[in-house]
């Protein structure tokens, strides 16, 4: 009889220990879940500004490079570029095509990846805006521009880099761009001399259509 009681006591103790261990493990797991940040998934960043008309637009990112460009200058250039929302282009067989454009100031790569399923999410064009006064600063602006191209390389068709502060004349740079800069630059003498932008941006937007 005593041996039976001893066996029951040992068995009960083991069951209790197992229960306590599992309860502690469960508490630990719950604690980790509650303390961990929410995963940054693509669908965590919906674009609430989208509408039905966006399905027929070409998406263009207008991005500031560096801190030399003030918020006022960036917004001024962005507003100037984003005024062009429609382009009428005569295609190769003589038909007039109406091209609609949408501009954004920032765009997640994760959202761009959805372009395989939703074409209006593809980023087709990139325009960067930088300011510099030396060769070293110019090289850095060009480097960041090229790195952004790589970031969106899966869908990007063409790009332009607006560079303020280093030119000796209309769209004439004071310094050469680095050899690894494979894009087209638009040089402006200052924030107040942006007239060259209008024709250059129209040409860039037209290029997106012809590449498509």
Could you please describe the fold and organization of this structure?
InterPro entries: Trs120_TRAPPC9 (IPR013935). This protein is an alpha/beta fold. The chain folds into two domains: about 1-35; about 55-210, Rossmann fold (3-Layer(aba) Sandwich), CATH 3.40.50. The protein has five helices and eight strands. A hairpin with a 2-residue loop joins strand 6 and strand 7 (about 170-175). The radius of gyration is 28 Å and the shape is elongated. The N and C termini lie far apart (about 90 Å).
Gap from first CA to last CA = 90 Å
Query: How many strands in all?
Result: 8
Oligomer: single chain
Query: What fold name goes in the CATH topology slot of the largest domain?
Result: Rossmann fold
Q: What are the secondary-structure elements, in order, as H or E?
A: HEHEEHEHEEEEH
Strand order of the largest sheet: 2-3-1-4-5-8
Give the CATH architecture of the largest domain: 3-Layer(aba) Sandwich
Q: Let me know the average pLDDT.
A: 78
From the alpha-carbon coordinates, what is the Rg to the nearest angstrom?
28 Å
CATH class placement of the largest domain: Alpha Beta
Low-confidence stretches: 39-44
- Note the beta-strand portion: 15-25%
Question: Helix count, per DSSP?
Answer: 5
What level of helicity do the residues show? 25-40%
Total discrete domains? 2
Helix/strand class? alpha/beta
Biggest sheet features: 6 strands, mixed
Specify the overall morphology: elongated
